[in-house]
Amino acid sequence: MRAALIDDFGPAEVLRVGRVPVPVPGPGEVLVRVRAAGINAIDWATRAGHGVGLPAFPAVLGWDIAGTVAATGPGADRFTEGEAVFGMPLFPAPAGAYAEYAVAPEAHLARTPPATGHVAAAALPMVALTAWETLFGHGGLRAGQRVLVAGASGGVGHVAVQLAADAGAEVIGTASARNREFVLSLGAKEVVAHDMVREVMDVDLAVDPMGGAEFFRLLDVVRPGGVVVTLKGEGPEHRRAAEEHKVRSAFTYVRPDGAVLEEKIAPLLSAGRLRPFVDRTFPLDEVAQAHALGEQGHVRGRLVLDLS
What we know:
This is NADP-dependent oxidoreductase. Keywords: NADP. The protein has about 300 residues and is α/β, with parallel strands linked by helices. The strands form three sheets. Strands 3, 5, 6, 7, 8, 15 and 16 form a seven-stranded mixed sheet that branches. The longest helix has 14 residues. It is globular and about 55 Å long. It starts with a strand and ends with a strand.
């Protein structure tokens, strides 16, 4: 099968397309004919050598997949051959999503809604699971609360805005002037420039996809008793600063969860209440260009490899 490989860590140019054996599903696993693969920031971080570890080279990158079940391993009976599925298998272990076939534990997958295409489905798993855990797991989001989503036009951000608005929250997003109308169209009540975030007041929950100085800026906008959830790591200095502001801090480290995708995300997709935005698709042969574009940091929504 064809796959996008790296033989060592490095810039986007280290990505190449080659041939590797089709993986064989083991007990409780399914073989997925991958029709689309989502591209995430952790993908290019891993390619560059500062993401998750890789056990060996050559390595196939990627985690977000959408496609159809091609075969099932022993004891795997949740799906049948030909069913459309999507998910984020195995993370943070390698999943080999940038390939024509990938093996996944069936518990890490969900059925793709009939009206949702493979590209849209592949755009969702990592960002949707991250946003869900951030808002409802760590954040305990309830209707009527005020939520600030930093980087609201990005991958996690544009999904978090929609999920929070759908749950009845008042959503404020930070975005550039170019993305203001886009973020409002997702359900945000207000959009502020990134450098004006401290003008926002009395937020119950702040979502920090950026980390670094952004986390500490967001502490100033959260009311006492509220929470800042970061996606970029939480250390003692974060907890100390949060305590000084009388707010709580939390860290989302996403894990595979086919049940959340099937029971929470897929129904919203089916009902049209969650709409992933795909900025651009690339064929597998242009995976290096996709990574280079993603690393520039100005993508609206998601980038997806189309392997159909």
